[in-house]
Amino acid sequence: MKGIKGLILFGFLAFLSSCFEPPEYENSPVATFNSIEFKVTPELADADSLIIYVDFRDGDGDMGLDDSYRSDPYHERNFFYEDLGSENNIKAVGTILQAVNRPPYPTTIPMIVTPPTGKLVTNRTRNKPGFETLPPFSSATVDCQDYTIQYLLIAPAAKNSIDETYAIVDTLRDQSQNEYYLLNDTTYFETNLNHYNILVRFFESNGGPYTEFSWEEELCSTFNGRYPILTDKTNTPLEGTIRYSMVSAGFIPLFSIKNLKLEVTVKDRAFNQSTFTTPEFTLDKIRVN
Known about the structure:
By secondary structure, the protein is mostly beta strands. The chain folds into two domains: 2-65 and 197-277, no CATH class; 77-191, no CATH class. The protein is built from two helices and 18 strands.
């Protein structure tokens, strides 16, 4: 299964209609199943497409995300501070996406600005009293689960979350000479599901009870994604259909003749959400070519 890693892509197409009568919709979206289809490419090595059509309506039209929504609360990953006495003794911390003009570093880097409740959680934190329940570090899952090695900026307000034991690779300064510490350490993280506005879970069966197939755990991948902003108008009721295409070479090797169901959640920018489950299907029964 590991050989399928990375062969996942997304595609979106929305068919919209605006409501010209006074809206009767709630501001929370309502999403319902329309249809699903499976398209197979001629070459065995090429990726196939599983496409779901989602009907939706929303009272205020705040549907969709673009690249301007990359900072807290839409950031991609939660990092953590030590916080003894809280749940699991750690506290989630969001980031803002900071532009950086310092080659060879990336042009944008996530930055923590929240004042700390304790030190930033890394793979070493598990060795401290009270943090033994943190998962152990594994090089096989680094950057997929639990721990990542990536550039991370620490803003002046958060500087007490680190010390000389952290892997500080540079110190950057703004026009006021405030210091920003650039880390490239092994930090603990969890995916922030608010980064996505469509979530897809797969459930499979060989004739018995359904069990979830986790793309994250099996292949370090996800079919959670984003559909784009659907209107530039504010407080405009919308209804229509979102075409959400999931592309992978893994569908037939993984699921072949298995029964499948998808659980799909659609969210608006205020994080209101609507969830439905598709009818049971097999890939062969929904194949369209």
